[in-house]
Design goal:
- 70% of the residues lie in helices and 0% in strands.
- It is mainly α.
């Protein structure tokens, strides 16, 4: 439950900032920009971290693969 709320926090922060931008007028709109920037930064950081973890996992899986001509008679890895 806690992870689900944390996963939704950045998109909800962006949604709240966009709503504030729409509802406010004049210079009051600038107050919504920090929330928009923080939410965007959190989403960007999360995406980059996800890609880095996936790349490391793929590299580890490729490292463990047996040689193509090694046959199936050998000991398991």
């Amino acid at each position: 439950m806690k992870r689900a709320l944390l996963a939704l926090s950045a998109p909800l922060l962006i949604l709240l900032a966009l709503l504030a931008l729409l509802l406010r007028q004049g210079s009051d709109r600038l107050q919504a920009l920090p929330a928009l920037l923080v939410g965007g930064g959190l989403l960007t950081y999360s995406g980059l971290t996800w890609r880095r973890r996936r790349r490391a996992l793929l590299a580890a899986l490729r490292e463990r693969q047996p040689e193509p001509g090694a046959g199936a008679g050998g000991p398991p890895p």
